[in-house]
Amino acid sequence: MKKYDDLKLKAIEIAQNNPSADVVDIYDMLCEEDGFEGTLNTVRYWLKHREDIKQKVQNRSQITQEDLDRVIEEIEDDEDDLEFDSETEAIGDDPINMTREELIAQYLKMQRSRQLARDQNRILRKVFRESDRVVNTTEELLKEILNQVRSRKPLEFKPTAINVDNNRRVGIIQLNDLHLNECIRAEDTKGANTYDFEQASRRLMKYANRAKLYLPQMGINDVVIAFVGDMFNSNRRKDEVLRNQRSLAEAFIVGSELIASFVQDLATTFNVECVSVYGNESRLDEHIQSVEFHNNFDYLLPHFLDRMLEDQPNVLIHDLSMAHEDLVEINGANILLSHNHNKTSIDKKILKYTRIGKIVHYVLTGHIHSLSLTERSSQGASVVGTNAYAFYSLDLFSRAMQVMHIVENEEDWPAITPIPVDLQNADAFKGYPLPKDVNRLSMRTGVKKGGGETILRIVI
């Protein structure tokens, strides 16, 4: 019963010292400080007549001797709980000799000090309680992990042999944006890139080398070379005319022989099939905007390759579809080839074919000269790398890169794994054979690069 009365007085005391506190606040303070286990309704009942009690304390005529004795007892009992500089500061003069007004004033001062100390202690206890909970939880977790580690038996490691399953795999050699005939000097890009027929030859040889190195490890015997446009550089603009190495006719012959060497190199290891679409830079007329892209060097290339490689038994050049995109099936996967010079989103292209009842599993694109791979598409970079226009006008730098893919015919959806190949540094490769005078004249500089007698020299 005494505990009940003490808590009741405590609730009234908190209510007097915290005029703005409501019943819930007082209930929380009792639970936190005194271990109160009652209900909110109990506290509400206790505080029902607190205004009458408060008035009683303020009116000294109503203070009884019993009230004074209780105040004196509380002051003396709480004296050891508070820190004061002296006994006089704690209780002033002897409580027995104090007037009622002084005693009440001293009591209220004591209560405020006690409340301040309790508030500070409550805040500290909350901080320490939260910190202790984190520490305790972490310690228990570590103990449990340690017990699990000690109770488990060591795993017996058994190395697994490399096992290529029976699923048929086919490789795709994506080839886009060669821009053969373009000439890039070191000064065009602050030394970041150079490009001509010789550099293209070395980079293509490196690409074929990496294909012959990587793909057989996955049991691949068949590859498809996907020409995705812009095999040759345009001369429709004046700056392109100045940067091209040879005339269009000469460049086409040299470039076709170079690509034929690349195909033959791959044919020494794989069975090779070639498919292709057209790009925008290989057009013979800049005004051709329709799907009739056959007035295009990219259209002529497969026909020349077919003639040059007709005696190669394991090389097959497929007919073109007269368009700048085509949907082909490779090892059960529907692959959309598109140079994508109009920069249409991949999702939009896939949706277009879905509406006519054709599923597109993967899309191969080019044109942007920047590598971008997603789970549904591969945007190849280029063989040429960055040039003066990209470096200075667009503030872009891209490395010479291409992508090859592994196509696995699985039950629900074909698995297509892209493998990027960096071709920027190919100086370790000698390249495929080229005409001796392939770099004979640069119209832009007027200097013979391939040697020979100088017919004009400025001496002033």
Topology summary:
Elements: H1 2-17, H2 23-34, H3 40-46, H4 50-58, H5 65-78, H6 87-91, H7 100-151, E1 169-175, H8 197-214, E2 222-228, H9 238-243, H10 248-267, E3 271-277, H11 297-308, E4 315-317, E5 325-330, E6 333-338, H12 346-354, E7 362-365, E8 372-373, E9 377-379, H13 388-393, E10 401-408, E11 415-422, E12 441-442, E13 447-448
Parallel strand pairs: 1-2, 2-3, 3-4, 6-7, 7-9
Antiparallel strand pairs: 1-10, 5-6, 8-9, 10-11, 12-13
Helix pairs in contact: 1-2, 5-7, 8-10, 10-11
Description:
- The protein has helices spanning 2-17, 23-34, 40-46, 50-58, 65-78, 87-91, 100-151, 197-214, 238-243, 248-267, 297-308, 346-354, 388-393, and strands at residues 169-175, 222-228, 271-277, 315-317, 325-330, 333-338, 362-365, 372-373, 377-379, 401-408, 415-422, 441-442, 447-448.
- 40% of the residues lie in helices and 14% in strands.
- The radius of gyration is 44 Å and the shape is elongated.
- With 460 residues, the chain is an alpha/beta fold.
Q: What general form does the structure show?
A: elongated
Please tally the β strands and state the result. Answer: 13
The percentage of residues in β strands lies in 5-15%
What's the average pLDDT? 77
Could you give a short account of the major beta sheet? Answer: 6 strands, mixed
Number of helices: 13
Radius of gyration: 44 Å
User: Distance N terminus to C terminus?
Assistant: 119 Å
Strand order of the biggest β-sheet: 4-3-2-1-10-11
